[in-house]
Design goal:
Layout lengths: L1 H9 L4 H15 L13 H22 L5 H8 L5 E5 L7 E5 H7 L11 H32 L2 E10 L9 E10 L3
Parallel strand pairs: 1-3
Antiparallel strand pairs: 1-2, 3-4
Length: 183
């Protein structure tokens, strides 16, 4: 139930609003003036939702403190399965590494604010997965052999590009990345 609940509310509420609502419902469930005949509240599910959203908020705050340069973000993200890169000229910094759930919250693929379709979102994530698998395979199978000949491994970073003009569809970009091999 937690995943479904989060998916439904994440399209319409910020992480802070979800936290406030879940905390309010938990307090309401145990309030002494709550009628005994009222339907029981799903406290366990609310607490699980609250923990999940707090973790996402904490992750988001860590991301906002990211001081890596763009090149390092591209290198790191080429082998990171949990995050995606977004280049948004209206954000600071312009190139951000964010979690997949946050991606879908910031850039919904349904509703009035959608700038891409669910099929486009899936295609973007599949492209990320394909290049991630290729990078990890190269790293695992050729990393040691390549380290003898070269001090880098070639990979690709997939970036979601947000056009400056409001309402324009989101784009994806695949960039070449050279990952340094550490000996």
């Amino acid at each position: 139930m937690t995943e479904t609940t989060f998916t439904l509310v994440a399209e319409h509420m910020s992480l802070v609003q979800i936290i406030d609502a879940a905390e309010g419902l938990i307090q309401l469930a145990s309030h002494p003036t709550r009628p005994k005949t009222a339907l029981p509240m799903p406290i366990d599910e609310l607490q699980a939702l609250l923990e999940k959203v707090i973790d996402l908020r904490d992750w988001q705050e860590l991301e906002e403190q990211d001081d890596r340069d763009d090149t390092q973000k591209l290198i790191d993200n080429a082998t990171d399965p949990d995050t995606v890169l977004v280049r948004d000229p209206s954000a600071t910094p312009e190139l951000q590494e964010i979690g997949i759930l946050e991606l879908l919250q910031r850039y919904p693929c349904r509703g009035n604010d959608a700038r891409w379709s669910p099929d486009d979102a899936i295609a973007f994530l599949e492209t990320k997965a394909r290049w991630l698998d290729a990078a990890l395979e190269t790293w695992e199978t050729d990393g040691e052999a390549m380290a003898d000949d070269s001090d880098v491994i070639e990979a690709k970073a997939v970036v979601l590009v947000v056009p400056e003009k409001p309402g324009q569809a989101l784009l994806s970009e695949v960039l070449d990345v050279l990952i340094p091999v550490e000996e």
